[in-house]
Amino acid sequence: MPGTERLADRAFSELVKRGSRLIGSQASRFVQLDEQLLLSEAERRAGLGDFGDPGFREPLRRLLRSYDIDANLTLLGRIAARQDTVRLLVNRLTIEEDRRRDPDIGREEIRKPIFVTGLPRTGTTLLHGLLARDPGNRAPLNWEVVFPSPPPRRASQRDRRIEAAERQLRWFHCLAPGFRRIHPIGSRMPEECLIIHSHSFLSFQFQTSHHVSGYQAWLEAQDLRPSYEMHRTVLQHLQWHGPRARWILKAPAHLYGIDALFAVYPDAGVVFTHRDPLEVVPSMASLHTELRSTFSDPVDPIAVGSEVTSRWAEGIARALRARDRGCAPAAQFFDVFYTDLLRDPIGCVRRLYDHFGMELRPAAEERMQRFLHDSPKDKHGPHRYSLEQFGFDAEEERERYRAYSERFRLA
């Protein structure tokens, strides 16, 4: 029974976390996050030694230092961080080897991709899921971005990497059973760009699940173009054996990289989703708290709330400044409002297609309708949160986002 399974998952999660906490400050003795050790481990696993552009080394070094200094990782958290880092390094090695063997991979053209972005919890996942149902579009799937090498053959549903990704997600859901209520994720489901960006080690993925304040402060001051160049490299890999469909991509963190995005994808379209920030901030604080509690101890919800609202207020402000100073022509932007998306999702999609000169065929619309039917809100239970839970003052938050809210009439 689903309810019994959820109770068992919660019990297992608490048991593992309790054991991990008991190790406490001794965790670093058992699991070292040393740069050279991790590089050597990746080389051993891949049987390769060329990581490509060495520019990833500084962000990797800063991330590992922040894991040690800032993140309060439990033993479980250190194991997860180590495994994830080695996986990303192995992927870099094998991607370089694939491109050495088949230089034409690097000549794949990524034409007129559509990027969905906006503050977290503003409908980006719903809109991305709808657009991905059009056979004329293509969204990167979870298993593809977790294991992009060798270039996958999209027609195959027997790729062993699908099962490997499913095993990872089964463990994750056992350790963080409440996450299903907040954000849907599955090995064959469309995935965000954060995992792709992580291969450059210039990614907002790490701060989502860990308190890496030193790394994050450094990251937000960087030119993110190398991250988007790595993003294009991975898309070329995924496209090599697959259809040349229009890529549909998504991540709230694109707010911080609008200039870099257009530098790498000058013909891209960018869709901004908008929602009342007072509904957004406690929801995104809840997501971060749930994830970080899986890997760190202690996690202070009040501190998480203060951190994430400051970060994303700056993110939306940066994105709008880039848009206003003409980083791309106005026709390459489109705005979608959360209330409109919930009230008439297909109508929103039609307007988006019209804006970008795309054709919405009846078969695609039917698939979108079926997706809506099969993906009701609160499918895995309601996601409950409040401003007070994370120490938010409504008037203070309203003032923080005032310029944004007034511009798009969100209050």
Q: Would you identify the CATH H-level superfamily? A: P-loop containing nucleotide triphosphate hydrolases
Average pLDDT: 91
CATH architecture: 3-Layer(aba) Sandwich
Q: How many helix segments?
A: 21
Strand residue content: 5-15%
User: How big is the Rg?
Assistant: 21 Å
Give a short account of the largest sheet. Answer: 5 strands, parallel
> Which blocks of ≥5 consecutive residues have pLDDT under 50?
1-5
Strand order of the largest sheet: 2-3-1-4-5
Total tally of structural domains:
1
What is the highest CATH level, the class? Alpha Beta
- Given the helix and strand composition, which structural class is it? mainly alpha
Give the overall silhouette. globular
Helix content: 55-70%
- From the N-terminal CA to the C-terminal CA, the straight-line distance is 41 Å
Order of helices and strands: HHHHHEHEHHHHHHHEHEHHEHHHHH
The CATH topology, please?
Answer: Rossmann fold
Please count the beta strands (DSSP E, at least 2 residues each): 5
